[in-house]
Every structure is written in C-alpha cells, then in structure tokens.
Automatic annotation (TrEMBL):
Name listed for the protein in its UniProt record: Transcription attenuation protein MtrB
Domain named Tryptophan RNA-binding attenuator protein: residues: 4-69
GO molecular function: RNA binding
Subunit (UniProt): Oligomer of 11 identical subunits arranged in doughnut-like structure.
Gene3D superfamilies: TRAP-like (2.60.40.50)
Gene: mtrB
A Pfam family matched in the record: TrpBP
Family the entry assigns: Belongs to the MtrB family.
Annotated source species: Salipaludibacillus agaradhaerens
Keyword field: RNA-binding, Transcription, Transcription regulation
Tree of life domain: Bacteria
Amino acid sequence: MTDNNGYIVIKAEEDGVNVIGLTRGTDTRFHHSEKLDKDEMMIAQFTEHTSAIKIRGKATLQTAHGDISNLK
Ligand code: TRP
C-alpha cells in the first residue's frame, strides 16, 4: 500500500489547484484538501486512509501509470 508506486507528483499549472484526498473504506468522502498555486508541486501517496485523489484545476501529474495533463 505504501510502496513507491503509491506516489504521484502533482504540478499546478494555474493558481488555486485543489488536491483532494478521499477516504478508503465503505464511506468515500473528502478528508483533506490542499491548494496549490501555479508551479507549486506536491508529492502525495495513497495510504491506508487515502484511496483516491481528486484534482481540480489545470495540473500535470506523474504517476506509475504515466504522465497526465489537462492543459489544452
Ligand atoms: N493523512 C493523509 C493520509 O495518510 C494524508 C494524505 C495522504 C493525503 N495522501 C494524500 C492528502 C493525498 C491529500 C491527498 O492518507
């Protein structure tokens, strides 16, 4: 669960990008919200508490599954 594959790198491409952690288990809800401004980066990990991560805003991600961007 907490090996290196659980990490994702997030680079905000605009101000006010939200990185939201969702809980693991039967009750899936927001438990954490982090706001990144342009060019701020965050390295986040899936944990026993976090099963999903929602990102609102323009951002570039690097994950074990590849690189993803929602820039036009
Ligand atoms: N305390 C949270 C946890 O261990 C912190 C966290 C981990 C988190 N990964 C995250 C918060 C991703 C937001 C997004 O699960």
